[in-house]
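Worked Example 4.2. Consider the chain below.
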Amino acid sequence: MSIFVSILGLAFLILIHEAGHFFTAIALHMRPRKFYVGFPPAIAKVRRRGIEYGVGAIPLGGYVKIPGMHRPAPKDLELHYQRALEEAPQLAGPVARVQQALADNEWDLAAEELPELERRTAEAELSERGRVGVERALAELRDGLSRDAYWRAAPWRRVLVIFAGPATNLVFAVLLFALLFMTGGGAATSTVDRVVPGSPAAAMGLSAGDHIVAINGRTVDPDDISRTVNSSRGRPVKVRVERNGRNVALAPQQPARIEGRYRLGFVLAGESLSPLDATKEAVRVTGVVSKEIVTSLGNLVHKEGRDQISSPVGIVEGSSTAARQGSQTYLWVLGLISLSLALLNLLPLLPLDGGHIFFSLLEWMRGRAVPRDVYERFSAIGIALVLMLFFIGLSNDVGRLGD
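Applying the procedure from the previous section yields the following structure tokens:
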């Protein structure tokens, strides 16, 4: 059940990310053609008002198809019409006229020539395989030449549409953190809220409701507890608590090293914050965590940094573990995942959102379009790097599952 909940949570984060792109594109008059959670092949789809909504069989992401993400190029037709031209040579003339218009950047002329090409293609006797290719080419070209094509929009509009996805994940993380601070996850207290089963804290006899008074003979405040346990470096820790009005010394236990810190395995209760204070604290936490995530991305050149990468398998496993520990822990992890998705998508690599933002800003500064072949080379490098990170994360996750 916890795995199912974690998968739903990840799907929800993807959904709101794509929804950010989708609704911003509509608001800025770039009407999307498709809205999918997951990647094809589609296991369910429906068309409403010219937009295809669907669920893909590969639950590793999602996408919104915005028309004309790149300027149409002559080779778009050359690639998909190769078989059709062998089967129906009479199509050569209409294809050549559209290609010439595209080569000359005569977009309106290409749009005027397109209906004739579509008519002649529909009349031609083509094999099923040949027709599938040309129909795809014509659909892409139709979108690329449309007035609401992405590439035709002003750079600021393009940046807003692309930035809206990561921004939605970022805003969701802040709102979720603020909600948690308002409902008891705010300022820490010295009172134990929950003990993780099988942890060193459970072995020493710590119980929910205990008030931690001292660690290793020293009186501690709420802010000192985690730091004092971590400073033990794995040596046995003595904890004294107040329980039902009595001071109780618990059996010493060695903290376990979890995610780079020594922990006993308990959660302190928190005091609820006001909406304003909760929002301020949520923004502060988001800033601190964002800085740590960016720093960890910079450490990918080191083995220690690469060891921290996770694939969707690890994300589901981690959030599943959090779900078993309680709803608040799970929601904290969900907020952190949302924040991570926002920052990772802002990396200046195609096909990530950050790559599209980078090129939109570059074209704005240059005052002219970046050549199509530059986009394609940059995309090839970006896809290779993204796949490399995915397989490193998957390798790490498989190794952890086998531990």
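The chain has a mean pLDDT of 84. The CA atoms of residues 350 and 377 lie 10 Å apart. Compare this with Example 4.1 before moving on.
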